[in-house]
Design goal:
By secondary structure, the chain is of the alpha/beta class. Helices cover 37% and strands 16% of the residues. Helix 2 packs across helix 3. The longest helix has 17 residues. The protein is globular, with a radius of gyration of 19 Å. The mean pLDDT is 94.
Length: 310
């Protein structure tokens, strides 16, 4: 019998690439367009890499003990990934979330063993963050991963970049990724540029909240992207260009990805592919290979308005 992983976190990473052949066929010039399917991580998103990396780093630093209480504000993916990893490692996880998140998500987190504390929806994530901070101060031996500022967030995605390099045999020319924490574009971009200094990293942000380019924070419906601040994890020196994608562009492209390529892509994936298609249309990018990151699937948003767009 071949070696079998000892727990589910050992299955994180090594996600596949798939060629978006039908979308390529609609382009005015030859471009190879590849998507990295991060939702095929066991917890359903790229955040599996981040959750495991943050716990590994904290354990290596001696920050965590068996009775440490891990506290984190979240509205989605990082909470689910942390719940999966904490279940395996027997940590008590407390998540604070706005009470407007889908009830199915709360039930799933609790089923994984996480303690979920709901905060007033009208206060949004700011309310969840405030509650988490208060809990940390009141809870002895507690720790927060703080994914937006934890160096392990980008470090986890250096492995993503290495996978891309190996999977394309070094043929990748452009990396495109949406920016939530900034971990993917910063970590994967850094590793790929170490192999190929001429590689270009393209960040995608919501047009309605162009914070990365100095614009004001605004409301949008591209879930998982567009924090109302520039995350500490985001490394602007790695990024050659930031592309703005509107809600309508993201959802129109998401519809194409689902109905033409048959992929269970989420809204952030739709935005990233929309950005990749913009780049692919440029005359100077004839014959290049573009890798676009698809962070999670539409199933994660089935209880939101995401599917109503189709």
């Amino acid at each position: 019998m071949s070696e079998v992983p000892t727990d589910v976190t050992k299955l994180v990473g090594n996600t596949p690439l798939v060629r978006l052949s039908r979308l390529e066929g609609s382009l005015p010039q030859p471009v190879t367009l590849l998507a990295k399917l991060e939702w095929l991580n066991p917890g359903g998103s790229d955040k599996d890499r981040v959750a495991v990396a943050m716990l590994d780093a904290a354990e290596a630093a001696g920050v965590l003990t068996p009775d440490t209480v891990i506290i984190e504000p979240t509205s989605g993916n990082i909470g689910l990934s942390l719940a999966m990893a904490c279940a395996v490692r027997s940590y008590h996880l407390v998540l604070t979330m706005p009470d407007i998140v889908p009830k199915e998500r709360v039930r799933l987190l609790r089923a994984l063993g996480a303690e979920v504390i709901l905060t007033p929806g009208m206060r949004g994530m700011r309310g969840a963050v405030t509650r988490a901070d208060a809990l940390r101060k009141a809870t002895p031996n507690s720790w927060s991963p703080r994914q937006f500022e934890n160096a392990a967030t980008a470090a986890a995605h250096e492995i993503t970049g290495e996978e891309i390099w190996q999977q394309t045999n070094g043929a990748v020319d452009i990396l495109v990724a949406g920016v939530g924490t900034g971990g993917i574009i910063s970590g994967a971009g850094r590793r790929l540029k170490a192999h190929k200094p001429g590689l270009r990293s393209i960040a995608v942000q919501p047009a309605a909240s162009p914070v990365l380019t100095g614009g004001p924070a605004g409301s949008h419906r591209i879930y998982g992207l567009g924090a109302p601040f520039i995350p500490a994890v985001y490394d602007a020196d790695i990024v050659e260009e930031v592309v703005n994608i509107s809600d309508d562009e993201a959802y129109t492209t998401l519809h194409r990805v689902m109905t033409v390529e048959g992929l269970f892509a989420g809204p952030g994936s739709g935005a990233a592919v929309a950005g990749a298609l913009q780049i692919a249309h440029r005359r100077e990018n004839r014959d290049v290979t573009i890798v676009v990151i698809m962070p999670d699937s539409i199933e994660r948003y089935s209880a939101t308005d995401a599917l109503s767009e189709h």
